[in-house]
Amino acid sequence: MNGILIVDKPQGWTSHDVVNRARHLLRERRIGHTGTLDPLATGVLVLCIGKATRIVRYLESADKEYRAECRLGVITDTQDADGRVLETRAYVPPSRFAVEKVLAAFQGAALQRPPRYSAVKVAGVPSYRLARQGVVQELQERPVTIHTIGLLDYADPVVRFHVTCSKGTYVRTLCSDLGIRLGCGAHLTALVRMRAGRFVLAQAMGVEQLAELAAAGRAEEAAISMDEALGDHPSVTVSSQDAWKIMHGNPVSGYPASAGTGAGDRIRLLEPGGTLIAVGVVQEGAIRPEVVLA
């Protein structure tokens, strides 16, 4: 099986738990995902199966959309409800206007410091492992972009909001920062990933549904093709002769101008019959195959 499956990750499972379950159900070792969800979170987890693991790099950079819930007045060591409570504060509940104003201030490009309890690696070791060993390691800030953010509901001490953001944004850190700016502290209590790139929650299946399809030998029917998964990239249909060159890793020329692409753009390369054979990048007037799939 070579394709994409969209799974609604259950709460309490790690993303790796879902991958391991899928490997067992599908009898396929080559399975990867395009962006980790913490155990607390649910929602869209994009699984790349078989040869589709080779296009993870193109899918994992896509924007994500979430619905989040946080609790004011309580600070935890992990910035979410799975962590140890560090402090419970007495505070005057902020107004709805104040909450909306702080959320709106997050919009745009900024630097965000990942939480210590995260998968970010320090000298090859995941930060959360160091944190569990009592090693205090402050991670470097990283650029993130909040495209949209807004309040959904507020009834003290619970704040619910939606956010669309770039890869690598930690929503639990947004909750923590919200609490800091309001002066009362806060932590994430619930998170649903509504969208990852072009894949939305309405497309997702539960793990049990995947198990049923696999048992019936019908899991492939639910798979999204690699070509469809990469549909945000323009496509070029090449000649049979050039398809042969591409499948052997050689660049071809004469296509970028007609495809309306520019230097550095990535494109889907199709053979005359319409089958995706590679992902290429435009360089110096030619298309160089970056990942050959045929």
CATH architecture of the largest domain: 2-Layer Sandwich
Number of helices: 9
Measure the end-to-end span. Answer: 14 Å
Domain unit count: 3
Output the helix-strand order.
Answer: EHEEHEEEHEEEHEEHEEHHEHEHEEE
**CATH fold-level topology of the largest domain:** Pseudouridine synthase
Whole-number average pLDDT? 93
CATH superfamily of the largest domain: Pseudouridine synthase
Low-confidence stretches: none
Outline the structure in words.
By secondary structure, the chain is of the alpha+beta class. It is built from nine helices and 18 strands. α1 runs parallel beside α6. It is globular, with a radius of gyration of 22 Å. The mean pLDDT is 93.
